[in-house]
Design goal:
The structure holds two protein chains of two kinds. Chain A contains seven helices and ten strands. Chain A is α/β, with parallel strands linked by helices. Chain A folds into two domains: about 15-170, Glucose-6-phosphate isomerase like protein, domain 1 (Rossmann fold); about 185-240, OB fold (Dihydrolipoamide Acetyltransferase, E2P), CATH 2.40.50. The two termini of chain A are about 35 Å apart. In chain B, the strands form four sheets. Chain B has a five-stranded parallel β-sheet with strand order 2-1-7-8-9. In chain B, helix 3 (about 35-45) packs parallel to helix 15. Classes of the chains: A alpha/beta, B alpha/beta. The structure holds iron/sulfur cluster (SF4).
Chain lengths: ~250, ~375
């Protein structure tokens, strides 16, 4: 790494908090058996770079963390096949890349956590679980710059978290009493699902992928569906199709 | 801001808290979230403790399990104990206390009561057990009622004779109106229900600003959504606006789900009045099954006792549901009434205000008291 500025000048207080939180989340996911999938459709060398860093141990004797670059021209299709519930997807991309916007939107339906690294205009709030963003950078310089500093820090801090096994066994909620049993009705529950197979007949359900696996979902209330459609599922029925609706948490 | 680091997109959350703190200044605001899912998010993520001290979140009657009166639970137990009946319901209804115990107690006494995830699962049990009569205990707001409507239509298509629904679906607008009419409360605005609004849309809430002069913002369920909603409410107040806005635009449309509303109208109709636990009778606040589907109406097919039962004397669920008192202000909270031994329904479901506070809130409040913390940015 060739850095011309002190890291503190490159990574401000807020961003360092976010990096720490993202590293802890990533370490917990690896600890639970996750694979890291990395995409960077605009700047492919970053995808390879991140994957290579995680897969080789930071210091002799440390864990190699399973990490793979997805460089197919259609990262959504490739990630859909690759990810399992509990995995993590990192994207190094601008907020305007429609392939990454789509990928981030679908990842919760696959049960994958997301980290989005980029620069310039930020993505809509809540677009990813962790948004590690800098004001500016030159993304065409694969070996220098803030992106590179950021994912190196992410990789190293992830290993730092492994030094504290107590942190890894805590629940994702930071170790507070987890009573995360949720009542279907009273929680007004709605889960994101992606259609895998359209219904065979008017009265049969669609096969839908959600964060917990595949399930049969009645789609009477949303009309004909096709594979890839995103649905909001409640009590065995789809209530709405997300593609019909625009907007995000603002 | 420890809690914020655990939110989705903590950077965005941090920015929102700063902006909320600026907008709120030293003024006092009291916002009610009507939905149990929001209550759960607020307690689970300690949102009350990252907001400035002048902003109070009041928990409303948005848990449909919590508002089912004891007499209806007794009727459900009576149904479950009828010979040849397989009684099905969502998990949380099993623990709601009636005057003779809960459905779990009925199960222990030998009744065939089963959890289902969807009313369509209950229908499948009916298809698989032609010699039994399967009753589905339907509870929930307009989010859940469409699944029941689909199930009724399917039951009719299949010509099933051994399936019926004990319908206790409630509607969201009448309790909001009842709360606005209550002299006990002075609210600054509402966090509107999220998934209910995918079905009913945002139009039914227009009376809240137009008649009662209170802003309402339909909210999503992530901590970030709650913060964004509080921000939108404050912004309206600071701009001198008062309207219905939709923070959950990625899911909720203004017109709702027209197909679902049509199916609800085909299968169900409003009851003239319905008793809500703690809130009393509210007119046109619940749904019953239409005459065209009477063959699947458990209230038509069985002669249920239908006896009204008063709430236990110690129970202050009504005040909690109206947001008049906080859960910990109830005399039996955490002593006689706990999630293991609930006296009132608010302690049963994890989204009930008392259970949510018991499970998550105590710790945040104690921690905040201990460190004298308020919103620190
Ligand atoms: S503590 Fe129990 S009795 Fe008191 S309001 Fe809460 S649920 Fe009702």
């Amino acid at each position: 790494m060739t850095m011309t500025q002190e890291p503190a000048a490159l990574i401000g207080k807020d961003l360092s908090d976010d990096l720490a939180a993202a590293s802890l989340a990533l370490a917990r996911k690896f600890h639970a058996g996750a694979t890291l999938w990395v995409v960077s459709p605009q700047w492919e060398p970053h995808a390879h770079h991140v994957a290579v860093e995680f897969v080789h141990p930071v210091i002799m004797g440390k864990r190699a963390l399973p990490s793979v670059a997805l460089v197919d021209p259609d990262p959504v299709a490739q990630a859909r096949v690759a990810t399992r519930p509990g995995d993590v997807i990192i994207a190094v991309a601008s907020a305007a890349d429609p392939r990454v916007v789509d990928l981030m939107r679908r990842a919760p339906a696959w049960g994958a956590q997301t980290i989005w690294i980029g620069f310039g205009a930020r993505p809509a709030a809540g677009s990813a679980d962790h948004v590690l963003w800098v004001e500016s950078d030159d993304p065409m310089v694969p070996a220098t710059g803030r992106f590179v500093l950021m994912y190196h820090l992410l990789w190293e801090l992830t290993h730092v978290c492994f030094e504290h096994p107590g942190l890894l066994t805590m629940a994702d909620d930071g170790g507070r009493d987890c009573t995360d049993e949720v009542c279907v009705t009273c929680s007004d529950e709605g889960r994101l699902g992606e259609v895998v197979m359209a219904p065979e007949s008017e009265v049969s359900p669609a096969l839908v992928r959600t964060a917990t696996g595949e399930e049969a979902v009645d789609v009477t209330l949303v009309g004909p569906v096709e594979p890839g459609d995103l649905l909001l599922v409640h009590a065995g029925a789809a209530l709405t199709r997300l593609d019909d609706v625009t907007g995000a948490a603002s | 801001m420890k809690f914020v680091d655990e939110f989705r997109d903590p950077a965005a959350a941090r920015g929102l808290v700063r902006s909320i703190t600026r907008l709120a200044g030293d003024d006092v605001f009291k916002f009610m979230e009507v939905c149990g899912g929001h209550t759960h998010t607020i307690y689970r993520h300690g949102i009350e403790h990252i907001l400035p001290p002048g902003i109070e979140l009041v928990h409303g009657p948005g848990c449909p399990v919590c508002v089912i009166p004891m007499g209806r639970v007794d009727d459900a137990m009576w149904l479950a104990e009828q010979p040849g009946v397989i009684f099905t319901t969502f998990g949380d209804m099993m623990r709601v206390p009636g005057s003779r115990g809960s459905l779990l107690d009925a199960k222990a006494r030998g009744a065939d009561t089963r959890f289902v995830y969807s009313p369509l699962d209950a229908l499948k049990i009916a298809v698989d057990n032609p010699d039994s009569h399967v009753v589905f205990f339907a509870v929930g707001f307009e989010t859940t009622a469409p699944s029941t409507a689909v199930t009724l239509v399917r039951a009719k298509q299949l010509g099933l004779r051994n399936f019926s629904v004990f319908c206790n679906h409630v509607t969201i607008v009448p309790p909001i109106r009842a709360i606005l009419e209550s002299p006990d409360l002075r609210l600054s605005g509402f966090l509107g229900p999220g998934h209910v609004s995918t079905v009913v849309g945002t139009r039914p809430y227009r009376f809240v600003p137009e008649v009662y002069g209170k802003p309402l913002v339909v909210a999503g369920f992530e901590p970030l959504d709650i913060l964004a909603t509080v921000h939108m409410l404050l912004q309206q107040i600071r701009d001198g606006r008062c309207e219905v806005e939709n923070q959950y635009g990625r899911v909720v449309r203004e017109e709702g789900n027209v197909a679902a509303l049509r199916l609800l109208a085909e299968t169900m109709t409003l009851r003239p009045h319905f008793e809500w636990r703690g809130l009393g009778f509210i007119s046109q606040s619940a749904l019953k099954i239409n005459d065209g589907y009477a063959d699947f109406d458990a209230e038509v097919r069985f002669s249920m006792p239908g006896i009204r039962v008063a709430d236990p004397k110690a129970c202050q669920c009504g005040e909690v549901l109206k947001g008049v008192i906080k859960p910990w202000e109830c005399k039996v909270f955490g002593t006689a009434c706990t999630p293991e031994t609930p006296i009132g329904t608010c302690m049963v479901s994890p989204e009930g205000a008392c259970a949510a506070y018991y499970n998550f809130g105590r710790m945040h409040r104690e921690a905040a008291d201990m460190i004298g913390a308020t919103a620190s940015v």
